[in-house]
Structures are given as C-alpha cells and as structure tokens.
Automatic annotation (TrEMBL), chain A:
Keywords linked to the UniProt accession: Signal
Signal among keywords: yes
Stated name of the protein: DUF2271 domain-containing protein
Name of one Pfam family that matches: DUF2271
Domain of life from the UniProt record: Bacteria
InterPro entries in the cross-refs: DUF2271
Position of the signal peptide: 1-19
From TrEMBL, chain B:
Signal sequence coordinates: 1-21
Keywords from the UniProt entry: Signal
Domain of life: Bacteria
Pfam families in alphabetical order: DUF4198 (PF10670)
Name of the protein: DUF4198 domain-containing protein
InterPro entries referenced in this protein's UniProt entry, alphabetically: DUF4198
Biological source species: Tahibacter soli
Amino acid sequence: MRARFSIALTGLLAGPVFAADLNVGVEVPNLKVAEYHRPYVAVWVERDDQTVAANLAVWYQQKEGKGEGGKMEQGTKWLADLRQWWRRAGRSATLPIDGVSGATRPAGVHKLEFDDAKAPLAGLPAGSYKLVVEAAREVGGREIVRIPFQWPPAKPAHFDTKGDVELGAVTLDVSP
Amino acid sequence: MKFSAKLAVALAAFVPFSAFAHKAWLLPSTTVTTQDQWVTVDAAVSNDLFYFNHVPVKLDNLAITAPDGKPAQAENPFTGKFRSVFDLHLTQAGTYKIAVVNAGLFASYELNGEKKRWRGTAEAFAKEIPADAKNLEVNQSAGRNETFVTAGAPNDTALKPTGAGLELAPVTHPNDLFAGETAKFRLLLDGKPAADLDVEIVPGGSRWRDKQNEIKVKTDKSGEFSVTWPAPGMYWLEASLEDANTSVKQAKKRRVNYVATFEVLQQ
C-alpha cells in the first residue's frame, strides 16, 4: 500500500517534467499553373477562443532589409494575406519572429518538430487546442485547415487532414 | 460669368440636399496591411457603390490622422472628371483615419432687388453678409466622410472624436471587421451619444444587383448600434440628421451627416 502510494506520487511529480512531442507535417502541393509562386504558410496552435497559444512557423519571402534598422523586407508586404494568422498573431508581432519566421518552401512534405522542453511549446498549459495551418499563394488561393488535439497527450496519437487546393496532407503526431 | 459658374458648381457640391441624392465615398486600396506600405484612395460621389461615374469628391478638406494622432499628408493628389485619387504612405504602425470634413454656412439673400448666394465659415459670415441684406436665409451643414486603414496592429489614437458634428466612436475597431461577426459602434453628435438615429449600411457591388440590400439599424439610448456582417466586402455607412444647433443665430437649421467606408474581411 505504501509502495503503491509512493509510485503514484512519483508519477504525479514526474507529470510536469515529462517530454511531450508535437510533430507537424505540411505538404505544399505541386500545382500546375501558369504563374506559380511558393505559398506563404503559417502554422500555429490555437486556443478554443481562437487566440494564439503558440506560433510554430511562418514562411514568407525573405529579403535583406535596407538601411540600418530601417526598411522592412518587401516580403512582409503580403503577410496580411494570411488573413487569419495576421489577425490573430502577425499584426501584433515583431517581424521576423525568432525561430518561427522562415523562407517559403518548395512543393513537398515539410516536417516540423517541437517538444515541451523549449519554445514555442514550453509552458503551454494543459488543455484542448487546435493546430492551424494557413496557406496563401500570390495570384492563387488561400486555405486554412485545423486539427483539434489535447495537450499534453495521454498517449501517442496521429491525426491527419487535407487541404483542397493550396495545402496537401497536413499531419499531427503527438506523444507523451 | 466664369466666376459665378464656378461658384454655382461649388455650391452644388456643397448643398447637402443635392449631395444626399448620391453617395459620397472614400475607397482605400487596402485597409489591413503591414507598416511602411502605401495605400491609394479613390474619392467619388456616385449612385452605385463603389463606381466612380458621377462627380469627384474634392480633396480641399481632406484630413488624415496618423496613428500617433498627428496629421499625415496625402501624396499625389489628383481630381479628375469622376473621381479624386491620392496616395498615403503608412510610415507608422497603427490606424490612420482618412476624412473629408465639410462644415460651413450658406446663405441666400436679396440686396437692392438682386438675389445673392454666399457660403463660408461662421467667422466670415458676420463680416461678409451686408447689414441691409433682405430675406436672409441661412443654413448650416457639417459632414464627415471617413475611412480607416491599419498598418500592423490596430490602435485607437486617430479615432478619438473631435466633438464636432456626427462622428463614429468605435466599440469594435473599424479595421477588425469579419464576415459573420457582429461589430458594435457608437455615433456621437457634437461629442454626445446620438440616440435613436437611423443608420443605413449598403454593401458594395450594387452595380451588379437589383436591390440596394441595405441594412437598416437604429442607435440606442447610448448612441450604439450593432451590425452582423453578412459577407466579406466593402460596406458604405451613412447617418444624417437635422437640428437647430447652429453656430450663428441667423441659421435656423443645421444638416449633419456621417459617411464611412469599411472593409469586412473573410474569416
């Protein structure tokens, strides 16, 4: 009885320090169009009230700024086309976001790996969330997909969904 | 002859009753963008929203307020047959208020048997209307035509009401409007809640439909009204009233109106 209690206690204490993983797969589809530009893509974790719990990635055209701390990269001009991300996170963020901003990606599957030991997931309170992936393409369309999940995960779980045009397969793997 | 023709045109543009037959509007190229971008704005009076097919809005009384509350300057202003155009460089982060503010008096009177017309400010009125003017009739008008553009995160500094005429005090920020969501605004008359006032909201694109599809709402006791945006797009809002709150005693009536253009975004 006493032994069982101490095991339970150990388990309880271990709770906050276990390493939970969150891995995302985003497929940028191969589109046969006359004028193709790589899409701008934002990946984030959303709370139930649609506020942003964590920015995971935002891919946009990166160009060197001109002058000292002066001109912003021209690539940021179109960031507001990621409408939902811009409203929820982008417009109040200082760009580039360290560890989140990156260059646009070519067609193919792109893997993103995160764990609760470090930013941006460190300190994410337990609860229900949605993974959100939004893509907007110059002279193309815009699309957003969501995958609900619980954090931290009780056991390993795999989720997937698919965009119609601007996003291919989107996968989410979480494990305690 | 040339002068009076010019004056007649100016008067026609100024007389509120004739202006109300059409819709005056400011149409920005974008309302939500990033800092250091440019926007361009069309300004016109027309029947269809938002097509410049009648007369331009004159830019003489254009007043732009930057996110820090200070005036900002329009660039490349142009007034053509159907519309005026200007550019604005969004050098600051936050919300710009773009307004055309028309306020003044206009009078008609007889002098030595001749009919005269006059327009101007309250200060000029006392000096310029002859003491022996007969059948003097004076009307006052105060009109605001506004739109809003935000670079980065929205802020409220430029949206502070001036306390003159009809103004919009946002409860929901005018650059944070989304289809399917309900926005709330407050209308103020001379800085105080404009209660029980009819407000008309018309979606753009009216050229390609049979009906105006106007949304009619009324302000409550605190001057507030709500609107649930049915679809994304540009919307035109108007409210107007007549009162006796004039700045010179000879003016019996004051015509006050407020117009704004909003962009409602898709979720």
